[in-house]
């Protein structure tokens, strides 16, 4: 065990007696809240899972003691104490655990996801370690604003084994972020003792990341408060991140109902002798206060807890008609802008100019990703942007979870981050931050937070990039409620859609096709912004509807011209936004043409085409004069060899052939 770097001579040396009394009150609130929650859970008044922090009150109260309202915490699935210590009230906490509409998250989050971003509580988290990249994002926002705010990221010893821990701490170290990574080491990762989970101690890990490490007795609230007060003062003055280990213990099992076969009763009882509340009572006595003071506080807290439980019990459950509330931020209607008619420019110019425009107009916009600064990204899209916006174009390590998580945390803190994932294939390495964090946090906080985040990426088959650099994964992303997925097809579309995405209050995955970066088209007016969620008719027609998106729009348009010479009039629709899907435009076209052909570069099975086919068969069935036809690659990895890749990837010839078959079908 490592000793604290600063000796604490006694409470009088650091905190007046009034502070000690308030620390006791806050710990008593957490203890009695958790005890009441345990009772309510056993009485089936709390549904779902329940993870209690009884025994860990001192680390929560001590760590939050020096925090300001504009400081941020991120938490764990065992986060009730952290939320209470940062200022969340008892009644909305109980109501949230009971699933009531008066809950802190309107009954949408529950115990493992309790949060209130308005208080700087960026959320408990059901995914172990997932809050750490979000904390790095909140700290990035603090650093960019230069307002002296700090972040405390709580995590347990089990989270040290996750990639999220490594990526977040490394990113914070590289960027010198004002964040305390506070490990509440309670010696158990779920049911496994610490010794079975790790070989390296946290002090060695901190040294490996090149950041400071400190140890503190996590059952001594004065020690924790003193240590964190000193660390946060240094962070506010410009110091870099610190890894703080607070040694403590949870009295209850991993979850309520845990049979606890993995530890001895004697071990639990020995830790109970180090009860943090009893330890603080000793300090109060040493300061000249008798037990009547603490007893009185206990009675006052008990009355507050009872009143809060009664209030939560009387609160209604969310109304059924509110089922879909908070899935996304409202999106204002935008008119379709005039067609672009300016000088010719390239798709890559469109992307860089859209980002530059928004960064010029809005200081909350910043860009982060691998080699986006000096290199301008792997395709050089942003060369020179870092010089124009110092500090706002940020190179990251190769850490996709940290990159997206940084965007999530910064967006929660009110910034408008644009983060880049170099290839769409790499989405799998950061899927948690997209699927469980960015897409869900507005919903799980009951609408208390917006998520103005753009995740830029690119894809494309046709240049022998192989199976791990060519995939079109939009169907996977579109299946995640809360995400918007955009795939532009031309320079003007890329410019207008990307600007709309940056301005939007929802998480948007913006997918460019790398084979189109050199594609040329007319430059739109500088104010050109395209509405998200709206398809466009590229070519009107009457004999069949071809629905597609991204680079396949050019192939479909070329096929339509070939068909026109043969007397077949094809309407071509560019979806532009994959999710939310513009069903109305597709159905309206189907009413007029009575035939539907869908083309995309993603593999056919379970793709966007399948969704559109289901839409046609469901809502458009009586307008169909022929079966729905899909043109897409077979369900297999993208081949490397050029000949095989071309055989795998359909284009204008395959679209035209499918259209001929379709129009020959008799109704």
UniProtKB/TrEMBL annotation:
Keywords (A to Z) from UniProt: Oxidoreductase, Thiamine pyrophosphate, Tricarboxylic acid cycle
Broad EC category: transferase
GO molecular function: dihydrolipoyllysine-residue succinyltransferase activity; magnesium ion binding; oxoglutarate dehydrogenase (succinyl-transferring) activity
The keyword Signal is assigned to this record: no
GO biological process: tricarboxylic acid cycle
UniProt xrefs under InterPro entries: DH_E1, THDP-binding, Transketo_C/PFOR_II, Transketolase-like_Pyr-bd, Transketolase_C
Location of the Transketolase-like pyrimidine-binding domain: 345-519
Cofactor: thiamine diphosphate
Signal peptide boundaries: none
Catalytic activity: N(6)-[(R)-lipoyl]-L-lysyl-[protein] + 2-oxoglutarate + H(+) = N(6)-[(R)-S(8)-succinyldihydrolipoyl]-L-lysyl-[protein] + CO2
Enzyme Commission no: 2.3.1.61
Domain of life of the organism encoding this protein: Bacteria
The protein's name in its UniProt record: dihydrolipoyllysine-residue succinyltransferase
């Amino acid at each position: 065990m490592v000793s604290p770097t600063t000796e604490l001579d006694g409470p009088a040396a650091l905190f007046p007696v009034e502070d000690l009394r308030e620390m006791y009150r806050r710990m008593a609130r957490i203890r009695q809240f958790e005890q009441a929650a345990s009772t309510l859970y056993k009485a089936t008044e709390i549904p779902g899972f329940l993870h209690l922090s009884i025994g860990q009150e001192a680390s929560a109260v001590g760590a939050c003691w020096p925090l300001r309202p504009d400081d941020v915490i991120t938490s764990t699935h065992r986060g009730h104490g952290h939320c209470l210590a940062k200022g969340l009230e008892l009644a909305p906490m109980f109501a949230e655990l009971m699933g009531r509409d008066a809950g802190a998250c309107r009954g949408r989050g529950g115990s493992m996801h309790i949060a209130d971003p308005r208080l700087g509580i960026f959320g408990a988290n059901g995914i172990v370690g997932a809050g750490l990249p979000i904390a790095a994002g909140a700290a990035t926002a603090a650093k960019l604003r230069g307002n002296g705010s700090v972040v405390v990221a709580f995590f347990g010893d089990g989270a040290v084994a996750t990639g999220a821990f490594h990526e977040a701490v490394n990113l914070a170290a590289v960027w010198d972020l004002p964040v305390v990574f506070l490990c509440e080491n309670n010696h158990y990762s779920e049911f496994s003792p610490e010794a079975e989970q790790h070989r390296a101690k946290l002090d060695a890990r901190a040294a490996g990341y090149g950041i400071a490490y400190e140890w503190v007795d996590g059952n001594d609230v004065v020690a924790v408060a003193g240590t964190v007060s000193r660390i946060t003062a240094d962070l506010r003055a410009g110091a870099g991140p610190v890894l703080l280990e607070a040694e403590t213990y949870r009295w209850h099992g991993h979850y309520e109902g845990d049979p606890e076969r993995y530890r001895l009763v004697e071990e639990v009882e020995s830790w109970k002798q180090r009860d943090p509340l009893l330890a603080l009572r000793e300090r109060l006595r040493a300061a000249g206060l008798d037990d009547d003071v603490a007893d009185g506080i206990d009675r006052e807290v008990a009355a507050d807890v009872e009143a809060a439980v009664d209030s939560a019990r009387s609160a209604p459950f969310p109304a059924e008609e509110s089922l879909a509330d908070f899935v996304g931020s409202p999106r204002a209607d935008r008119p379709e802008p005039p067609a672009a008619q300016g000088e010719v420019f390239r798709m890559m110019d469109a992307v860089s100019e859209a980002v530059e425009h928004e960064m010029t107009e809005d200081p909350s916009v910043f860009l982060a990703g691998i080699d986006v600064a000096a290199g301008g990204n792997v395709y050089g899209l942003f060369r020179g942007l870092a010089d124009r916006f110092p500090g706002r174009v940020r190179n990251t390590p190769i850490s996709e979870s940290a990159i997206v998580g940084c965007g999530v945390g910064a967006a929660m803190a009110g910034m408008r981050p644009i983060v880049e994932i170099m290839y769409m294939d790499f989405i799998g390495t950061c899927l948690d931050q997209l699927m469980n964090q960015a897409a869900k946090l507005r919903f799980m906080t009951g609408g208390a937070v917006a998520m103005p985040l753009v995740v830029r990426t690119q894809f494309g088959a046709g240049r022998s990039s192989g199976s791990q650099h060519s995939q079109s994964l939009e169907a996977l992303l579109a299946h995640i409620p809360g995400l918007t997925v955009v795939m532009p097809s031309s320079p003007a579309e890329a410019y207008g859609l990307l600007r709309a995405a940056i301005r939007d209050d929802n998480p948007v995955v913006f997918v460019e096709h790398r084979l189109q970066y050199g594609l040329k088209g007319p430059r739109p007016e500088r104010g050109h912004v395209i509405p998200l969620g709206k398809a466009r008719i590229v070519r009107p027609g009457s004999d069949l509807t071809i629905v597609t998106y991204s680079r396949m729009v050019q192939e479909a348009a070329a096929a339509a011209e070939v068909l026109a010479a043969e007397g077949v009039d094809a309407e071509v629709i560019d979806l532009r936004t994959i999710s939310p899907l513009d069903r109305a435009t597709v159905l309206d076209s189907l009413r007029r043409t009575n035939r539907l052909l869908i083309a995309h570069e993603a593999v056919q099975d379970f793709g966007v085409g399948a969704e559109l086919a289901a839409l046609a068969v469901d809502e458009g069935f009586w307008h169909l004069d022929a079966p729905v036809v899909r043109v897409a690659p077979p369900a297999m990895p993208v081949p490397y060899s050029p000949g095989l890749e071309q055989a795998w990837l359909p284009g204008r010839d395959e679209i035209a052939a499918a259209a001929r078959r379709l129009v020959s079908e008799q109704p």
